[in-house]
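User: Second chain of the day. Same drill as before.
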Amino acid sequence: MTAFATLRERWPSFAGGFAVLFLGMAMVSTSFLALASSGAEVPDRLAGAPVFVSVPVLERDDGNFAPDRPWSPETVAALEERLGAIPGVARAVPDRTFYAQPVIDGRPAVSDRGYAWSAALLAPYRLVEGRAPRDGEVALDRSLGVAPGARVSVLTVHGPATYAVSGTVDGPGVYLSDAQAAPLSAGVRAIGLVTKPGADVSAVAEAARTAAGADGTVHTGDGRSVLEPRADERTRWIGLQVLTGMSALSAFVSMLVVGSTFAVGVAQRRREFGLLRAVGATPRQVRRMVYGEALLVGVTATAAGVTAGAALGPVLGDVLVAAGFEPPGFTVRLTPLPLAGAFAVGVLVTLAGVWSASRRAARVRPLEALREAEVDDRPMPRARWIAGAVCCALGLAAAARAGSSDGSDSFVMSGLVAAMGVIAGLALLSPAVVPPVARLVSWPLSRGRGATGMLVRESALTAVRRTAATATPVLVTVGCAVLITGMVQTTAAGFAAVRATTIRADAVVVPDGTPGLTDAAASAGGAESYLFTGVYEPDGDPLSAIGATPEVLARVGEAEVVSGSLDALRDEDWVLVADWLAEDRGLRPGSTLRVSFEDGTSASPTVAGVVRDAGADVLLSREWLRRHDPAALASEAYLAGTSAPVGAGARVVDVPTYAAEADAAEDRLVWIATVLLVVVTTAYAGVALVNTMVTSAAGRARDLAVLRLAGATRRQVLGTVAAESALAVLLGTGLGLVVALPALLGMRGAFATAMNADVPLVVPWPLIAGVVAACLVLAACATVLAARPSAR
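Assistant: Same format as last time:
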């Protein structure tokens, strides 16, 4: 009953902990649901075949999305024959895909994947109108609105081609006849088995394992999810990182704010705990009472947060798809296990957050509590002094390392450690740091004519812990926001500056609504380009490869030649290898490198030289690579002039524009994740500020009443407390800037040295100003609203 009674009487002081736990567990539960729903799924276009045989899947490091080595053409033919002869199999269909993008009303359509018509048997899609395509014809998705009989331009790897529309299907994709699709397709990695009606799928799968042998792996049911495109897998991986980070941040900050809430409550209730001890309560009983209060708040807030998270899960799924963190078709499914896990996390976070406060409450002595003065002059614990000093020392050491970096080491990590260390150190030492800074900042206030300035200054210096409790979350929020957003923006600007200075061209041809440039667009007006693809070692390990000419590598400033010459790329059967590959494989000029290509064929080119910083593991002739990878698209092309007739799907831009847009998709995802992090951090800081203001207002009722008795008007009292909160927020803002900006300047200098370019310091000041303004408004409004009853 004691915990219930205390909760009723002191609900305002617990409201902050309830709010942050509610928000945090809503975020954790939605993230857990999304994580549980974000596993690989069977691609819709392959859901029509119950059994698939794929190339052996190699184990790769986390974050590695290189495709597996395709079968050779001979292996594909042999497997197709053996698998098609299995009893119950109507047809064995190789999955052939390629680039094909219809041009509708002068603009490339969203759909950019092409398939052989036989591959339509692997999908649950059906022909809606017309008939199957023949040579010179195409079947399209009916949602494009092109009727059978019309003619349509389709962008392929070679350029635009005009086809007659033979029919429409009720699913996405561009379908060509098998004969037309073969020269546009790369190697085959999967063969689907279309079964006859009534066939035993298990028996077909077992026979397929025997027929495939060591050449393939059989997949049925949900196991077909391994056929998910690598691009979708990469998108899911990015979303996984974002969701995991948001969950961890929510749980961590929730624990800190819960701990802060109960720490302030324990400090204000020292007399109460002393009286309990005086009438016979043991330290264990006091701890149990504090834990009981925390569990009442934690369980209630966690249950409400988990319920809200379950309701918001589908909304989060739509947001993740729209932001590009999950592939199209992703949905958040409501399952009990993630919700139960989120509830358990909420209870554990509550217990962990209140642990320190309960121990402090149990150590209160009866006479100490009864004799305690009203002035907050208790010294900081020795452990806090030591922890704060250690964090600051580590941060300063990392800052010195980052500042002296020549760009060859991990200067970014050093800068992050420096800033985060000093931020954590100042947060721990805030009761000692805030008074002298507050005295310096508020000195002009004491020189004014009115009493308000003096009251604000003396209140900030007297109530050290309240001022520090208000300034600390602002310090952490502003410092982290400036550091993270500035690092992201400065890095992006740095890479753009490097591109602008290294590219030796008058203009650049870039894709416009397409995943890459066709050969026609990449060569328009004499433009030069390179192709990026993969080659495979005999054991199946992938190597990145660039097909280029010496001229285009000179234009982009790539490939520092260690030995040999770029002129070797003019001939086939010669390659240049990266320095790491030469050292690891023992390669030197004259050695043989055995590889297989995207079309499944193998070759043994001769190593002509070694290069460094080439952007790929292997360099080879562009024409040679094109013959072995008929599906590769160029990412950009370089023009000697300023214009070229590039046609649909491409546009010409100047070099600075290209430099700024080159990584636009990646930069967009990083920036969205960064803004989400800043918004969540600011929200938690706001809750911490409101909690501090509401909690401290209860202990200031007598002070405010004395001000009214001394002649202050209600407006003056409220203006004074609002000014106090604004001063504390400005103190935290100033300290956050003092910590973050030098670290950013150090990282910018080291980055400029590493890139050998003038890298500008870019900080999104409007976003930072919005963060500070939000903290100011929340702190002032919470203070005024909490003080209104006492100011009457």
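Confidence is low (pLDDT under 50) at residues 372-376.

User: Great, on to the next one.
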